[in-house]
Task: structure prediction
Amino acid sequence: MKNFTLILLFISSCAYSQLSCVGAVQLTNGYTAAGITTPGAGAGSPGTWVTAATLCGTAGQYHHNCFTSIGDDYVFSYTTGPAAGESVSFTIVTNINYIGLMAFTGCNGTVLDGCRDWRYAPTLGTTMTVTATALEANQTIYFAVGIWSTPNNLAFSVTDFTVTPPLSVEEFNEKQITAYPNPVKETLNLSYNQKISDIAIYNLIGQQVLAKPIEAADAQVDVSGLSAGNYILKANVEGTVKNMKIVKE
Result:
């Protein structure tokens, strides 16, 4: 029984000892993972190795408080392909309070820097998405999850990781619908150089959650009633359906 217990402790320690960004979990397009947890126990925990994270450029932030030598950390990484211009989005759902999420491009030992985006959730059950656009070719971007307060362990699920490839010359020159802001909280603005007949928004399992006639080249769509997460917007323009991904905060 003692030998069995020691083996379990060894496996548990190995499972969480990322120790640096080199040990980050590698992401591929479409990656999901449910029920990720870490051991906690504060300083000295095998899940604690990040000591600091830089701010994302403005005051009044909380995410950097989640990356200290007290709470556990969990880091993922993705490396872009040989063509510049990829965009990525990374979404988690928190299963514990005081979780921070950060997208960054620099990892200086135990310090996270080069922040591209961040989110913070004081309550469990919160969906958070960070994005990074116009990435360089063969660039590695990281996504870190950390916790601010006790009990110092992490509990979350990765519900979406999406890679959007760079536009080809033909796609870039093609007429595009503009949708902003994206991510959006309440009102999504749509603009096109032709009349948009109507739009519909679908969740990622294919259920229509909103539909609206437009009949104009510019319009506003109230999305405040949608839950936070990723959606597909389909716009009907002269019999042609144009799709785009939107993120609801």
Observations:
- The chain has two domains: 15-164, 175-248.
